[in-house]
Design goal:
The chain has 5 helices and 5 strands; from the N terminus they run αββααβαββα. The chain has 139 residues and is α/β, with parallel strands linked by helices.
């Protein structure tokens, strides 16, 4: 999660919503990403989506069955849906997203074989988001 938080700080510095993600396969980070929606002018350029593409390219496979996604914020519906299709082994997230997180819907959207763990380094992940939006409101 520390590597994902480092990615989130890159997003923060680039004036992007500070969400970072890494994908680990066999104890090796194979993908690193952070939100790039502003830079790419693309609403789908979430950290998770960029990381999925990068990891799939690294493995030359559309499936990430032996991989763990670490992301600093609970995935949205789009990213959770993509994690379903990628068949992640494990999803680990930091801060909970009470407004747009995938758990806000009553239907299970992660793959049935995917292990999910939330709240990892939640305080650190959440602080970065709170600080980012506080500064935005002050501008």
């Amino acid at each position: 999660m520390r590597a994902a938080l480092a990615e989130a700080k890159k997003a923060y510095d680039a004036d992007e919503i500070p969400v970072g993600a890494v994908i680990v396969c066999r104890n090796q980070i194979i993908a690193r990403a952070h939100n790039m929606t502003e830079k790419l002018n693309d609403v789908t350029a979430h950290a998770e989506m960029i990381a999925f593409t990068s990891a799939s390219n690294f493995l030359n496979s559309k499936y990430l069955q032996e991989c763990t996604l670490y992301v600093t914020l609970e995935p949205c519906l789009m990213c959770a849906g993509a994690s379903y299709w990628s068949q992640l082994e494990k999803l680990v997230y930091g801060a909970t997203d009470e407004k747009r997180g995938y758990r806000q819907i009553s239907t299970a959207i992660t793959h049935p074989k995917t292990l999910v763990k939330g709240g990892v380094m939640a305080a650190e992940c959440g602080e970065l988001l709170v600080d980012f939006f506080r500064k935005k409101r002050e501008q």
